[in-house]
Amino acid sequence: MDVEVALLGPRSPSSPSRPRRAPLVELVLELQEELRAYLFLFMEVTCLGQAAPSCSQLRNGLWADAAFWKAYAGVCLKEHWREGNAAVLRERFRVWLFHLEGDWEKDFAEVIEQDGRSEFGANFLQLLEDARYIASGLMPTDKGPRVDEFAKLVCSLLKQYNPKQLDERWAAESFLSKVEQRNDVFADDQVSQVASAFAESLERSMLEQHLEGADEAHWTEPLPEGAWQTWELEEEDPSEESFPGMHTDFGDWSPPADWSPPAAAEESETDQLMARHRPLSNMSRHDLTAYFDCACLRGLLAWSCRRPASGPGIIFSGTGSSCAQPMLRCAIGGEGGVPGCQSCAVALRYGRGNPNWRNNVGLIVRWVQSDGKVKHVQIDCGKTYRDSVLTVYKEHKVLSLDAVFLTHDHADAILGLDDLRQLQPFDPGTRRVLGPPMRCFCDRRTLQHCRRAFPYLFPSTGKVRLMQAFCQCNSDCDGDCKPDMPDQSISPNSPEKVTRFVASMEWKEIPEDTSPFYVDGFPFHALPVLHGADYTCFGYGFGSHGSRVVYISDYTALLPKTEALLERWSSKPDKISILILDVLFPDATKSTVHANLEESLDLVRRFRPEKAFFVGVGHYCRSSFT
Question: Are 435 and 424 in contact (CB under 8 A)?
Answer without folding.
Answer: yes
